[in-house]
Amino acid sequence: MKKEEIKELSIQELTAQIEAAEKAYRELKVAHAISPVDNPAKITRDRRDIARLKTVLRQKEIAAKASASEVK
DSSP letter string over 12-68? Predict the structure, then answer.
């Protein structure tokens, strides 16, 4: 997923994407432990994608808090 696509997602969509990506990452790690996967670089790519998703989620949460406190 590209950075632009990630930034367009809502907080709920980001949360769902993170859960799905973490589940797929865990399954890939188990599969790799049992027998080597075809593309081991996918493990690194998946881990970095999860980090990107979490970073954007945190940025949106901080922005939401800041806008909520400005309203008061």
Answer: HHHHHHHHHHHHHHHHHHHHHHHS--S-THHHHHHHHHHHHHHHHHHHHHHHHHHHH
